[in-house]
Design goal:
With 294 residues, the chain is α+β, with helices and mostly antiparallel strands. The chain has helices at 27-31, 48-59, 70-78, 86-97, 109-119, 131-139, 143-152, 183-191, 228-231; strands at residues 22-26, 32-36, 41-45, 64-69, 101-104, 122-126, 153-155, 157-159, 162-164, 195-202, 205-213, 239-243, 249-253, 260-262, 265-266, 272-274, 281-284, 287-291. 31% of the residues are buried.
């Protein structure tokens, strides 16, 4: 396979860093805004900073994994001293409900972010340089993990409300999905349809099984056999699962309102993500789908 960066028209030719598979976001760091005052500074929480950052990363084609300290989340959402607006609180609660935001024990924050990036082969996007963590690891002679922090750290800066960071566009592991734009193409797609069996869960409760078509867009109507409350968060056209000629399965979110999550990674809209040969947990809205061999 030709390295994407070697192609003449590839944006990766202008990127000199290592290429990973996803982006792990330090939600506590992103949501916290330090406001300078005459004597010191005060903290302000802004949930829209998370949404802007997530959208920019997804527009580049990278799946995301978002973590936040439990203490930060609880203070931001419930404390009387919190600066979050009602709409900001709703944004955070919605990210939790959709499975996009994971809460971390406060003392495990740095360790969780780095190990999550290593397990998923991703960058860590944060304004924090993790200097204390690196220094401690060096003192403990854990040079490999200290090196991983330096390799994977992606610096996030803010200019006003605009997040700035350097990441390439993802042209190597994902490709733009095809748009079914004419009747002939639709007919070709229908001729390729086969089915995959899934077990379906709602808020971790098993609610039944379903067969879903391959190589055709899937949406709310395909889940009509389930109660309306279970499918209300699924878009009319939500995602597509495709099977390559050699049998490899891939999935793409088709610009759905609530997004698509695969193995805890929120995948970018309209980009293809290859499914692994192992277990794949697919979350669409409040439903979780697990492929079965039945």
């Amino acid at each position: 396979m030709v390295d994407e960066r070697l192609k003449p028209d590839s944006p990766l030719r202008n990127y000199s860093g290592e290429i990973f598979d996803c982006v792990v976001l330090d939600g506590s760091n992103i949501i916290t805004q330090n406001i300078p005052t005459t004597r010191s500074s005060r903290r302000k929480f802004n949930a829209n900073r998370l949404i802007k950052t997530l959208n920019l990363i997804h527009n580049l084609g990278w799946p995301t994994y978002l973590g936040m300290k439990k203490g930060t989340y609880r203070f931001a959402v419930s404390s009387k001293k919190s600066t979050l607006t009602t709409s900001d609180r709703e944004i955070l609660e919605d990210l939790i409900d959709r499975g996009i935001l994971s809460l971390i024990d406060d003392e495990d924050d740095d360790d969780w972010l780095i190990r999550a990036a290593m397990q998923r082969n991703g960058w860590v996007l944060s304004n924090d340089r993790y200097l204390d963590a690196v220094r401690k690891l060096i003192e403990e002679k854990d040079y490999d993990l200290a090196n991983e922090i330096n390799r994977r750290s992606c610096r996030l800066e803010w200019v006003g409300s605009q997040p700035l960071f350097i990441l390439p566009r993802n042209n190597s592991t994902m490709e733009k999905t095809e748009i079914i734009s004419n009747k002939l193409h639709i007919k070709e797609k229908i001729n390729q349809i086969s089915n995959i069996n899934f077990q379906v869960y709602y808020d971790s409760k098993h609610i039944g099984g379903i067969k879903l078509p391959v190589n055709t867009p899937i949406g709310r109507k395909d889940f009509a056999s389930f109660e309306k409350e279970y499918v209300s968060t699924i878009s009319r056209v939500h995602f597509i699962i495709e099977r390559s000629p050699d049998g490899v399965l891939s999935i793409a979110d088709l610009g759905s309102k609530n997004g698509t999550i695969v193995n805890e990674l929120s995948i970018a809209p309209n980009y293809i993500w290859k499914l692994s040969n192992d277990a794949n947990d697919i979350n669409i809205g409040r439903l979780e789908l697990k492929i079965t061999n039945d």
